[in-house]
Design goal:
Blueprint: H1 12-22, E1 27-31, E2 37-41, H2 42-58, E3 66-70, H3 75-86, E4 90-93, H4 100-110, E5 112-117, H5 122-128, E6 137-140, E7 157-158, H6 159-164, E8 180-186, E9 194-199, H7 200-211, E10 223-226, H8 233-236, H9 238-245, E11 248-251, H10 258-267, E12 272-275, H11 277-290, E13 299-302, H12 309-319, E14 322-328, E15 335-338, H13 350-357, E16 361-363, E17 368-372, E18 387-392, E19 414-422, E20 427-433, E21 438-440, E22 443-445, H14 447-455, E23 460-470, E24 474-483, H15 491-497, E25 510-513, H16 527-533
Parallel strand pairs: 1-11, 3-4, 3-5, 4-8, 5-6, 6-7, 10-11, 10-12, 12-13, 13-14, 24-25
Antiparallel strand pairs: 1-2, 8-9, 14-15, 15-16, 16-20, 17-18, 18-19, 19-20, 21-22, 23-24
Amino acid sequence: MLGLMQSQPLLISGLIEFAERHHGDAEIVSRRVEGDIHRYTYKDSAQRARQVAQALDALKLDFSDRVATLAWNGYRHFELYYGVSGSGRVLHTINPRLHPDQIAWIANHAEDQVLCFDLSFLPLVQTVHARCSTIKHFIALCDEDKLPKDSGIPHLISYERWLGEQSGIYAWPSFDENSASSMCYTSGTTGNPKAALYSHRSSTLHAYAAALPDVMCISARDAILPVVPMFHVNAWGIPYSAALTGAKLVFPGPALDGKSVYELIEAEKVTFAAGVPTVWQMMLGHMKPAGLRFSTLKRTVIGGSACPPAMIRAFNEDYGVEVLHAWGMTEMSPLGTLCTLKNKHDALPEVEKMKIRLKQGRAIYGVDMKIVDAAGKELPWDGKTSGNLYVKGPWIVREYFKSEGGDPLVDGWFPTGDVGTIDADGYLQITDRSKDVIKSGGEWISSIEVENIAMAHPAVAMAACIGMRHPKWDERPILAVVKKPGMDTSREELMRFYEGKTAKWQIPDDVVFVDAIPLGATGKMLKTKLREMLKDYRLPGA
């Protein structure tokens, strides 16, 4: 017997409709590429999203045609999120930090029909447009009077002129909720990037889950600053969760330096922010010397890569800001776990609470996970036994776009490529990427743990641990370090810093000082490139 409830598809357009109807006067604030601050409301945004949908209809785009963006976090990008997906097309956010050759390959593989781009990326578009064979329309996200002359890009038009030709009188279409809504190519793979193709259903369910109190705890009382880019897994779903709850949105645009981010948080009374560790490192580096404080910021989600314990302690103890450590992947839309304490933890001493906060957290509803050994046997949740992490759920990839890479699932589970432990309370701790874990004398060494200890040293700005071949121990860890400006330390001092903090055999054999550690397009350390940089290095005594 079936239930007797109404059947209504879960569609992206429903989120902006809800925000317009119930939170129409809530603000959306953006720092524009031009440098000024733009303000309007959800009601204004919904009207312009409908104009986007009409404009796409006028271009004769078919259902599920791809519309690409090369854009920062801002109100125009937000309108495209809803106008493109809501009209039945697929929003394809391209990471502008990728190499031009990769961008051209991605655009062709996705068969993008339209490219909307911020003027910051005009030189990039000029470099790649001739190689993007499927793109027929180029739209600059700017006012008509800012449209560049003689750009060399065929039929380039301004976004405001494009929208201005439409009335905004438009009824959102209804269609299967399993239809594709957006796509994002992952950089965390070998060979060419692969695309995760999200559905309206998966993105809406993810938005619900992300807003839950034990996850991001988003509400209409929040002012949210998503520093995580809208081209990085849909800004972790925040543009959707914010509309679902009516939260104020504050978009930082291209100004992601510590001073600009801090000033925007204070000026707009931001209560909740989200970003990768490198952004917060810059902001804290700006605040501490100037003796600055937060007046409204209460919590921040940090993900994308492991958050150093020193950063969590600085936010928590120095500034009274709760850090919500998160873990996920492009293939997971992206949220998998988020670290919030349980009721039984309230009575614990602060040092014990901090041990929990350093973990990646508990699975959120909709995500199931397990750890397995090399033979695929499930391992116990004891907080000690480490294994390969597998996940499944309604917003986790089933296969990649165009079946690239074949079937990624193992008995219905997606292998994440991460290695970790899960404790009896369900808290996940990522100990490494499977490709980065170091095996020394038959024992595993977590590169993340080695890096976290180094990051607590006052002179260390960034640290990366990699394994080097050793004739006796198979591999031994070494540490690559970038010093903070104006500060100094030595190999010997850093080696002593490890004493008493980890087992002696896990202490790096050497420290190498470098000017910079290579970072990927999403701010993660590229250890493959670091190994290439250090290919001529030889371990002492090896």
